[in-house]
Amino acid sequence: MKTIIQTPNAPAPIGPYNQAVLINDTLYTSGQIAIDPNTNALVLDSIETETKLVMKNLEAVLAAANMTFEHVVKTSIFINDMHNFSKINSVYAQYFDEANAPARETVEVANLPKFVNVEISVVAVRF
Ligand SMILES: C=C(N)C(=O)O
Fold first, then answer.
1. Which residue lies with its CA nearest to atom 2 of ligand 1?
2. Of 61, 80, 93, 96, which is most buried, counting CB atoms within 10 Å of its CB?
3. Is 117 in the pocket of ligand 1 (CB under 6 A)?
4. Does the Cβ of 15 fall within 6 Å of ligand 1?
5. Is the ipTM of this complex over 0.90?
6. Given the DSSP bridges, would you call strands 118-125 and 72-79 parallel, antiparallel or unpaired?
7. CA dist 26 → 50, 66, 88, 120, 123 (Å)
8. Contact yes or no for 7/13 (Cβ under 8 A)
9. What is the pLDDT of residues 31-53, one digit of tens each?
């Protein structure tokens, strides 16, 4: 069964996609960027603040599918500057138990939507 996940607690899509798609017990989220869902404003104060808001937005999308970070099995991180890698890792690590951390890739890209510095998507499985 396919369910489109939508929540006002995460930013509305800024293009032709949904916040997440649930196929049976597997959730595929779109990449989240640091848009505050309450104001629709970008929050790019520091890479740490930006990453926290991205994770908060992902948490809201997961919650809309009755999931938490414990259900996440894979993440994809896109960043525009690999020099931010350790700062992003420090924030990211707060959301996962290290022994059970999801699989992941981190890729430096030339640019990201709205010229943000980090975008993260996840795959989560209900088990
Ligand atoms: C922000 C996005 N996920 C996008 O533009 O695809």
1. 31
2. 61
3. no
4. yes
5. yes
6. antiparallel
7. 26, 12, 26, 17, 7
8. no
9. 999 999 999 999 999 999 999 99
